[in-house]
Amino acid sequence: MIHxxxxxxxxxxxxxxxxxxxxxxxxxxxxQAGNTSGKSTSLQAIIYALGLERSLGPQLDVPLPYAMRxxxxxxxxxxxxxxxxxxxxxxxxxxxxxxxxxxxxIVGGKDRKLIQTWAGPGLASGGARSNPRDFYALxxxxxxxxxxxxxxxxxxxxxxxxxxxxFDGTESPLYxxxxxxxxxxxxxxxxxxxxxxxxxxxxxxxxxRRVMEFLLDLDVGKIRxxxxxxxxxxxxxxxxxxxxxxxxxDIAQRVGRLRGIPTAPTAEFAIAPELRLEILRDGExxxxxEAVRAAKARVAELEETPxxxxxxxxxxxxxxxxxxxxxxxxxxxQLEALRSEANLEEQEQRALxxxxxxxQQDLKRNEDALKLRRLGSDxxxxxxxxxxxxxxxxVSSELLPAVEAVGMGLEENISFVKSQIELYKVGLxxxxxxxxxxxxxxxxxxxxxREAQSELRSLRQAILQPSKAPSRIVIEEIVRLQxxxxxxxxxxxxxxxxxxxxxxxxxxxxxxxxxxxxxxxxNLTNNDSAKIYALQDAIQRRIQAYGFRSFQPSEIILSLxxxxxLALTRDEEGDxxxxxxxxxxSASDGIRLKWAYYLSLLQxxxxxxxxxxxxxxxxxEIDASSLYAFLKDGARDKSPGRQIIISTSExxxxxxxxxxxxxxxxxxxGFILQPLR
Amino acid sequence: xxxxxxxxxxSFRSRPIAVPGDLRIEWRVSLIVLMLGYSRAxxxxxxxxxxxxxxxxxxxxxxxxxxxVKAKPGRMPWxxxxxxAFGRALDFVVGDKLAGWTTTADRSALQLTAQGVRLFDALTxxxxxxxxxxxxxxxxxxxxxxxxxxxxxSAARKAK
Lengths: 677, 160
Known about the structure:
The complex is a heterodimer.
Chain A: E1 3-12, E2 17-23, E3 27-32, H1 39-49, E4 71-72, E5 81-82, E6 85-93, E7 99-107, E8 114-119, E9 130-136, H2 149-157, E10 163-165, E11 171-173, H3 176-179, E12 184-185, H4 207-215, H5 219-252, E13 257-259, H6 267-271, E14 276-281, E15 284-287, H7 288-304, H8 310-372, H9 381-385, H10 410-464, H11 473-518, H12 526-545, E16 556-558, E17 565-570, E18 576-580, H13 587-604, E19 611-615, H14 624-636, E20 643-648, H15 652-659, E21 664-667, E22 674-675
Chain B: H1 25-38, E1 43-45, H2 46-57, H3 62-70, H4 84-95, E2 99-104, E3 107-112, H5 114-125, H6 131-140, H7 146-159
Antiparallel strand pairs in B: 1-3, 2-3
Helix pairs in contact in B: 1-4, 1-5, 1-6, 2-3
């Protein structure tokens, strides 16, 4: 909640100080004075002091008249004096009873982007101020940074502003400048629409809807917000998953191949991850455990074997040498075959990629052609109607060279291309898989070959050793096996860590998915509808009291989308249709509707700031009786949480008669800014 | 076994065939209108249109446009292709009075009519249409002068 307790204007010339002081109370406040006396100045000064002038328009100029900026005189016929220094101070109060003074300089003082605040005592009582704080407004970050004035003001009012999507795809808080047009009806543009007008420079999507969702505290906005958050979180998890998976796969490739990690997190993986590393042995992919077990058994067996001396081992070694040689030949041949296989697969992969690319381009062109049909006859006869403009024959063969062929219809063609794309995508995926597999096999064979070669080398050396020296064959095999075991172990360790991390990601992901599924659709909840209907009822009751005549009050309803008023009328066939209000109601009834709308919102909107300001509601030469009915209605509301400030140039006795003692009437003759004594 | 003297009759019906998007009349006509619209004075010689057409159809020669616009004349290894379908589309454009024949730099050229300009405006207003094509044309159609076109043509001649 925010209430204005006091407004102070000061405009200082070389000779004297001009000023005005206006105390406001809870409930209805009426500023009564003649035209061009400074009523609007006073109300705009409130907006200016709060740094919200951009809610009236994006220009950074001071929205105050020249009496506060350039020159001033006490009465119409007096000489002008130049303004040397001027400022606005207001005292504001919130629901917790906290009261602060806000000051913003206009000319001659501090930078206009600076807004200063103090904690009491009140402006009326004067005295030394305490706890000064400086804030900046209008700058980048002033709505989000700690020392930004809007952050402070939103906190003071008790608002936590929701994040809303902008046209450029980013998000921003729902700026105070977007909300204030629903609290403050400025005289020059404010009466032109029922809601707002909202500033567009903030680039907030659906701004009317967002503001109404916030003020009425509708669930639908919160649900939408939550869904966006969940979606963002889901895609962040997906990115983490992909990175982690790629890192693990990188390690795996050095040993064999990895199986069992899906490309995206799944619920199954979250519960029971099953991760397998396979290595190629004799042309078959086997689980790493099996290979490790076999290697360990072999090591144990070898360690049992007594080490022979060279002479005894020679026949066996020669035999082995033959075997290894054949192995090497076989492996080399296999490697060659694998290499050309990989080449073929890669070629296929490339061809598929190129095909897909050209299909995508073709699809785009066909789709463009379909969209171009919207232009109809603007495209000319040939393109629009498929009739030759010169000979008037059918040109269904499009631009194809073959005269006899008939071109497919565009829609059919598009789905034809799409199905091809689908097909080729599947093809490309499996080609990718095959290429990977090819390389895994290639690496495995390559390792085997290298092992065989080193065995061959050591056999040769062993045979040439002195005949009494111990044979090196066994020892070297043990060393080789152990090197493999070490690699396998280190990979298994990495896999266990990665698997745990991946499982954690999958669990988070599953929870997000679950919550996303549980989020209700973006519809109004029953609660929301009740709030909107209550607002609608209140508005209907009020416009009736204010003498609304363009429609039956019950025919004015609120759109469920952004709560703008609509009129129910009948079309030629007698069906009831909803129509935009703009052209359907008279100008003065538009004004009545605006009074009723803002007052009802003040009464019913849960997040309302508790303040409504109407600058000169007597627009469009509206019946005085309607205006008095409105004033009376405003005065009736005695709730302490609400403050209404209205300026009017209607005669004072009539105003007083309408509001009685129920309102704080401030009136003055001549200019509001007068020399202070 | 007796042979049927009169075999059962077969009948064939020709099925429509898939048409590449660039052979669609609406696509190509719009493209030509865009080419002319982005060019100076809403007109371009036939040769220039063929060059632009080749560059857009095959993205392979798109970077060649950059060479044409930026490089010194005579250094363009580009033998561009003349596409028959493009000629047919040009006839449609003229037949529909979207553009009319004129001459520029002693070459026969096309210039958008008022109707063509209207279509061009409608096309440029719609931001999700022919986006990549518009990007290329906005960049090169205006800057490519007829002198550069001559340079490309003579380079092509020399290359042969």
